[in-house]
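A reminder from the course coordinator: this example appears on the midterm review sheet, so study it carefully.

Given structure:
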């Protein structure tokens, strides 16, 4: 069993014992099971899922950090939302604005557009979760 804690600047979102956690890290999705090797990684915007006794729950998270040590998974993120908490229209506007900004910055370097791409990823994750995917 893993102790999962998810914290945003506003509040503790979750503090539960779970069977597994999957997080969107900067290098790809990371699946975490009990006895996982110690890990510290940055998070990218995306879907975080966790399972307990065969039931899986998902949250849309923005960037942040994950730390794994001794069957403890600590996630610090700017936002973490369930499907019910997502304002679909606001997420669509966020995605549209990010797409326009990315198109306007077409000649910019990848590094210069990183924040825009993260905003686009966050909007896509929110919309995917709200749609039940």
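Designed residues:
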């Amino acid at each position: 069993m893993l102790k999962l804690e998810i914290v945003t600047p506003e509040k503790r979102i979750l503090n539960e014992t779970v069977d597994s956690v999957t997080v969107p890290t900067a290098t790809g999705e990371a699946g975490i099971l009990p006895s996982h090797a110690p890990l510290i990684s940055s998070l990218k915007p995306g879907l975080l899922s966790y399972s307990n006794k065969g039931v899986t729950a998902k949250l849309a998270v923005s960037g942040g950090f994950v730390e794994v040590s001794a069957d403890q998974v600590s996630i610090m993120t700017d936002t973490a939302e369930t499907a019910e908490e997502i304002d679909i229209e606001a997420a669509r506007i966020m995605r549209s604005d990010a797409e326009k900004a990315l198109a306007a910055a077409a000649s910019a370097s990848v590094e210069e557009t990183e924040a825009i791409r993260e905003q686009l990823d966050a909007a896509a994750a929110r919309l995917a979760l709200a749609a039940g995917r």
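The mean pLDDT is 93. Helices lie at 88-104, 114-130.
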